Amino acid sequence: MTLDPITLSVIQAGLQQVCDEMDLAFSRAAFSPVIAEANDRSDGIYDAADGALIAQGVGGLPVFVGTMQYSTRTLIAMIKEGRAGAPEPGDIYIVNDPYLGGTHLMDVRFARPYYRDGALFCWLSNTGHWPDTGGAVPGGFSASATSVEQEGLRLPPVKLFKRGVMDAEIYAIICSNIRVADQRIGDVTAQAAALDLGAARLDALLDRYGDDVVAAAIAELRSRAAAQMRSFIDDIGPGPHRATAYVDSDGVVNEPLEICLSVTREGENLLFDFTGSSAPCRGPMNSVRATTLSSVYLAMRHIFPEVPISAGAFEPLRVTGIEGTFLDARYPRPVSGCAAEVSQRIAEAVFAALVTALPGRVTAAPAGTSGNFALGGHDPDKCRDFVMYQLSGGGYGGSVMGDGLSNGCSTIGISKAPPVEVMEQAFPVLYHRYALREGSGGAGKHRGGFGLEYEVELRRGAAQASFVMDHGRFGPQGALGGADGAVNEVTVWQAGVPHVPVHLSKEQDIPLAPGDRVCVRTPGGAGYGDPFARDAWAVAEDVRLGRYTRAEGEALFGVVLTGAPHWKVDESATTLRRLARTET
Amino acid sequence: MDKRQTGQVAGIDVGGTFTDLVQLDAKTGSVRLAKVPSTTDNQAHGVIEALAAADCDLASLDLIVHGTTTTTNAVLERKLSRTGLITTAGFRDVLELGRRTRPQPYGMTGHFTPIIPRDLRLEVAERVDASGAVVTPLDEAAVLATGQQLLDQGCISVVVHFLHAYANPDHERRAAEILATIWPNDHITMGHAILSESREFERGVTAAVNASVQPILARYLTRLTNELAAGGYARDVLVMNGNGGMVSARTVAREAAKTVMSGPASGVMAAAYTGRLAGMENLITYDMGGTSTDVALIRGAEPAVSNEIEIEYAMPIHVPMVDVRTVGAGGGSIARVNAAGLLEVGPESAGAQPGPICYGRGGSEPTISDASLILGRLNPAQLAKTGAIAPDAVARVFAARLGDPLGLDVTAAAEAVIRIANTKMAGAIRMVSLSLGADPRDFALFAFGGAGPLHAAALARELGLPRVLVPARPGITNAIGCVVADLRHDFVRTLNTPLDALPKGALAEVFATQAAEGDRLIDRETIALSGRRYLYSVDMQFIGQTHLLRVDLPGPSVDNATLHALFEAAYFNRFRVRLADIRANLVNANCSVIGARAPLDLSTLIDPSGRRATLDEAEIGRRPVYFNGDWQNVAIYWRDHLPLAFQMPGPAVIEQMDTTTLIEPGDVATGDAHGNIIIHIGGLCHDA
């Protein structure tokens, strides 16, 4: 069947609409703030035969762009091999096993077979981040776990709903193994209802255009998305384009983990070779295969946002060399850091490798850490235990377009941080500072954005502070002569005495007493291009606004300023200062 | 107070391009209209010119209601008054850090400029905790010193924004008192006074917007009222607020942030009013202009109001405003063939400048309006009057840019552009209505703006809406909104209490206080009213949830069991889910007090003397128009000649000064007693 390009566009928009409506329904009905507010979820449509991604909601969490396709593929294979029950109409499978196409245990996938006239037409699937799935620490982000069993309950694909009815026994097992189980039913119904809504909307689309036409359109769109991605790949030189990125440590063994990437164009495809990356680690900074692939895809989508999210777009992107490395961890390696931290470092490696080849498209490295600070303890005034999460942003990298954004959210996320006032309402803490971290943006022709600096005090009771962050040892990488962004810094003040975690960005269960404080300074974005080529008056403006000191303006950018507090550029002194560097 | 009435009311809306005026004489039914170019430097000139163009006798006017984009433009173009911020020590960067976001999900670039620059954001020692208890007393000397410093830096407006001031406003009040001793004007905004809710970024930005536009609005209104008084106008000028109600020009600047959505709100109020008269109380308003399309929802003739509008990236203005959502498609949206060989329309737009090719202002990219011209839907002769480009020239661009790469001829390419644009707009309208908790099929489409009536029937078909309502004057809907608007005051009180813990009668008590305050404000106004309406609603959620669901209440006294039942019903209606074991939280109590104006007859908006007796006599010619792969010789009607009652099967084109209405094959247009056109969509509507 040949389809005209207009029908194709209309069906593409229709499939996209189904996914966007699933995203909306899931978020609006969900109970957990992590889904309802932070949109830590994603919904999509997948091929019946091979699980390939047909369409995915635009508002889905970026790190899920590639994982759900992988997860659906694995499910289809397991059904074929008899390792999972055969699908029937109205069934919904639940699975959170990281090694079967996932991320960390908290990302729980639902998959619903979709039938037309008794035959499987496609799969509808979604992922939602549950606030807890059991394990050693509330929330699941243990910085020192050494096996997946310590991280929580692991579910292989089982039918939570059988022919439209929830299996109360499976649900009872889940509820007996997770914290705050009484509210989970709200999320479960929201997650299932989103898939039901998707099925109803897909019915309407197929009724309107015909099953054969839509099926043909799906196949055609897949090959066109591949062609679109290939047309962009055409602009990339053959390479190899190399980069290395570092994870501070795995949280258990205090040594950096290395991501070695070499990107080459081979014909129409782009080959991402990770050979030489570190071996699987003892602590939770392992990535699983699905997350590694997804991180490459999301990085490429950040570079080419106009390519629709579909299997076709990923087809020309080939990932190799991850076997035997910490980017393809196998059971029982702990993996809680894969989605929040390792994924961002993989994306950074992709950016760093391609920025020279695509200087108009790629930015210098962003802060690239989710900045996960958890405080668990007991609040004597409210007579209850609490777990508080402070996720924080950092600076983005400079780009050909201009300076990086300050306090942007993680590369793999899209969520807002909670306000200080809401945190203080809910938890026994008082913030002393929530401020722009001066001087943190990496110098460059276009400088990096600035990180965040906050200081928070425990007011009463007792609590333990835990950190799963990164970029404490190495700042986000500068590009094309730009400087690195500032490194992440954590200081815990216990009875007035400063404590810096041995792993810099990771530590678990640091005891806090009332009056103790936690101070976090998040990374700045990296600089893009030679700082000495920066417009001198832009440097004067930054100094006038207190973002850099006058001395930094001179040392980092070669700009000599006079006349506080308005600051003017001393043009001739600046020229001499900048020339002096060129000559040496 | 003098509440004498002459019955003469003028509504004046200043838009981006034109200033529109409608003057209604309630006693004689006579109508005067004027459309003059807006004067961007001082909008008052355009207003005075519009009054002169309509030959209004200022002395005999009973009331002038004014919709203004003064504050909207100031915010969007960042032409703001120099404003300083005094805030809690440690928190001056809250306005710059935002909530840790980025402009788009994909693409690590983007830009954000805080509304007050860093050197004008100063800190003083003070701290209140979440319970409202003072942790650090206010450093009063520091307030004085920082205030003086801001004055020295040239600020003419100032915001006092302290953490947790919604829980305890004492420090903000005291600081404002101190500042008042040195500040040379009354442009002092306290954060809690504009919005008394937690979330320091949103409250701070709302207050900062208020302070930054207050001097601009105050200066403008002073100039305007002086000029009107010089012309003999003796009454108060009322200004349209973003909530769709009017407020006196004497007091509106105090809460200037509320006028930022003044223009769009007037359009939605006109839609609600027109719909109520026409017996169509559930409407989706669809205002399509050159660069964008505004969409809003009206249920039971009441526009949906939101307290959480973000007017651009990271610019939340959290005061009650008519919930108008902007969709990035307008007549100027650009069509192109992408690298996958697929046709895309938007999001890039040629805007008003250079605009579509056919406007002849230098545009060279194919747009939606150009496609309408090629298909014969827009009148080439009418465009030619304004120095436009000939259709052949437009067709050549379509052939080269779209037709050749897609393998289509020019007409097919133009039709494809319209089809893709309509699919995208329909999808966006669907998302807007769903996110507001409505199934679009329960609504009629109210089409206005220059391009709305051209696309409305196709969108309605796509969305499954049975009817389209095209008002008499789609191009001056905002000015009509001013004429018909009521006085309105909105109140929000955060209770955040589990329903089971809410004492009996507590909610009714809150509502009574809110209603009394609304009555007090309305009593102060000098205009005559026909009655009062009180709207009560609550925002609720299941305990553990973060999203709120608004539940409209039948009256102020509702017992807790009924509240829970109403909430469960609304929740089921919305999500098809019942959660019997989970209890509910009552978060906000909302009350709106509306001073209703006497009803106005809108049937004279089109001069009745121009009406012809039959449809045939209203026909002004025929021209080929392209529908579904075929050119058809279609009758063209002049709107002002249409009889009040008529039945017109499509295809047909109805032209008028300010818009073109397209009746597609299979649809039927009828006229109603109020001068509206109702398009009955073939296959969806069975009452024509």
UniProtKB/TrEMBL annotation, chain A:
GO molecular function terms attached to this record: 5-oxoprolinase (ATP-hydrolyzing) activity
Annotated ranges, domain Hydantoinase B/oxoprolinase: 4-531
PANTHER family linked to this entry: 5-OXOPROLINASE RELATED (PTHR11365), HYPOTHETICAL 5-OXOPROLINASE (EUROFUNG)-RELATED (PTHR11365:SF23)
Entries under Pfam families matching the protein: Hydantoinase_B
Protein name as it appears in the record: N-methylhydantoinase B
A GO CC annotation given for this chain: cytosol
InterPro entries given in the database record: Hydantoinase_B, Oxoprolinase-like
Gene Ontology process terms (BP): glutathione metabolic process
Top-rank taxon, per record: Bacteria
Automatic annotation (TrEMBL), chain B:
SUPFAM superfamilies noted in UniProt: Actin-like ATPase domain
GO MF terms, alphabetically ordered: 5-oxoprolinase (ATP-hydrolyzing) activity
Hydantoinase/oxoprolinase N-terminal domain boundaries: 11-180
One annotated GO biological process: glutathione metabolic process
Coiled coil region boundaries: none
Any Gene Ontology CC annotation: cytosol
Any Pfam family hit: Hydant_A_N
Boundaries of every Hydantoinase A/oxoprolinase domain copy: 203-490
Domain Acetophenone carboxylase-like C-terminal: from-to ranges: 537-674
Protein name in UniProt: N-methylhydantoinase A
Species the sequence originates in: Roseovarius marisflavi
Organism classification: Bacteria, Pseudomonadati, Pseudomonadota, Alphaproteobacteria, Rhodobacterales
